[in-house]
């Protein structure tokens, strides 16, 4: 009985996660396509290298050239994301470990899943800590704050 409930929740969660990944990827693709179209139209209006140089020295021009980069990754966002994932997984694993005392029929499954999820959460938390200290030692966190990111 409990195994059916756990299986139902797990399958529903898996399909929900798949749908979230697919829809967020489609959304990012559409945003990137729209930005590329706007940037192409703007760059087509610039006739010569002198005009481009003059435009690049304005604030709007710097923002346009900055947005042309392939990937803009903030160290803070990556570190916070890993830390959030780690905390959520640790708490979820701990909840499964607590459920083993309540549900006697599926206790072994809760122990295995709870231990694996806690280990995964600890891995995310440790990677966030390592990323923080490495980013700080490389000077990435100081440069991110000075550029307003």
Could you explain the architecture of this structure?
The protein has 149 residues and is mostly helical. It is 86% helix and 0% strand. The protein has 6 helices and no strands. Helix 2 (49-56) crosses helix 3. The N and C termini lie far apart (51 Å). Residues 144-149 have low confidence and may be disordered.
Strand content: under 5%
Mean pLDDT over the full residue set: 80
Mind summarizing the main beta sheet? none
Number of strands: 0
Order of helices and strands: HHHHHH
Q: Helix/strand-derived class?
A: mainly alpha
Helix content: over 70%
N→C terminal distance:
51 Å
Task: Provide a compact summary of the structure.
The protein has 149 residues and is mainly α.
SSE map:
Layout: H1 2-45, H2 49-56, H3 59-67, H4 75-102, H5 107-138, H6 140-146
Any descriptors?
149 residues; mainly alpha; 86% helix; disordered C terminus
């Amino acid at each position: 009985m409990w195994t059916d409930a756990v299986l139902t929740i797990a399958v529903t969660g898996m399909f929900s996660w798949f749908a979230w990944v697919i829809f967020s990827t489609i959304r990012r693709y559409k945003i990137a396509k729209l930005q590329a179209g706007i940037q192409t139209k703007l760059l087509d209006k610039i006739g010569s290298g002198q005009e481009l140089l003059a435009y690049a020295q304005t604030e709007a021009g710097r923002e346009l050239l900055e947005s042309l980069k392939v990937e803009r990754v903030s160290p803070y966002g990556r570190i916070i994301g890993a830390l959030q994932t780690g905390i959520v997984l640790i708490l979820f694993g701990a909840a499964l470990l607590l459920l083993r005392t309540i549900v006697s029929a599926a206790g072994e499954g809760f122990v295995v899943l709870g231990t694996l999820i806690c280990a995964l959460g600890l891995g995310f938390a440790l990677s966030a800590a390592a990323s923080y200290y490495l980013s700080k030692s490389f000077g990435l966190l100081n440069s991110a704050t000075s550029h307003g990111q």
